[in-house]
Specification:
This protein is of the alpha/beta class. It has 9 helices and 7 strands; from the N terminus they run E-H-E-H-E-H-E-H-E-H-H-E-H-H-H-E. Strand 2, helix 2 and strand 3 form a beta-alpha-beta unit. Helix 4 packs parallel to helix 6. It binds NADP nicotinamide-adenine-dinucleotide phosphate. NADP nicotinamide-adenine-dinucleotide phosphate binds next to helix 1 and helix 7.
Length: 259
Amino acid sequence: MSQAEHQAIFPVDLSQQVALVTGASRGIGREVAVQLARCGARVACVARNLQLLEQLVEQIQSEGGQAHCWSVDVADSQQVNQVVEEVVARWQRLDILVNNAGITRDTLLPRMQDEQWDEVMATNLRGTFLFTRAATRPMMQRRYGRIINISSVSGLRGNKGQSNYSASKAGVIGFTRSVAMELAGRKITVNAVAPGFVETDMTAALGEMFKDEVKKRVPARRLGQVADVAACVLFLASPAAGYITGQTIAVDGGMSVGL
Ligand code: NAP
């Protein structure tokens, strides 16, 4: 691969910095991890599938970047605290946290099982809470931090069949705003990114007809790509974004304009 192919899509200087990305084994999180590494950050890659994480670390290292991976369930308080401790022990700091791990368990409300509600809340909302709480300790010590929480347009506008998912992603937005107010004085920013419809494993099962329908509802007339989301994350993770906090930025080709 040529040098140009290894350039970040949004070039920011994150050398010396340490980033942790949850849900890094696939999709948006994987792309965010690759891009952060291309900007010079040392990247802690977190998800459950260790094999996929190891492949990611190999890719980052083959491009000259630094990364290490941990198999963690984001809903497990003990595992979360331990990985943050290990990251700080390894690299002496934690500057950037991207809470990206997320799942869907879609069904209409009357058919929704307790487990479908609980699993989505545990991964999407509790996971974001646990990692943010753990990461703010080292960030507060250094009086610097960038926390980026991946929400969803479903959390802004709701979606049929996604009451559990929408509630969790709206919860992420409320959490983001509150924690942003608590941490602003410590020079730690906390923002959310709300993707629209992005082509990943999460959306792969939806058929071509459904995708064509979605395209009609997107003013940009195309589906989102993982790089579209990663570019926004890189900007919010950069030192230049220090006066932006508590915000939710939709990366959705205009789907939520006017909400
Ligand atoms: P994806 O391809 O399904 O990847 C989800 C990631 O989350 C995987 O790396 C998965 O890794 C990880 N994960 C799930 N449960 C976990 C757990 N309990 N502990 C640790 N890691 C866990 O999804 P995606 O489309 O990239 O979505 C990434 C984020 O963007 C999610 O928060 C999603 O809600 C949000 N989003 C996506 C879209 C879209 O259209 N794709 C739109 C709006 C918002 P393991 O399976 O290896 O654990």
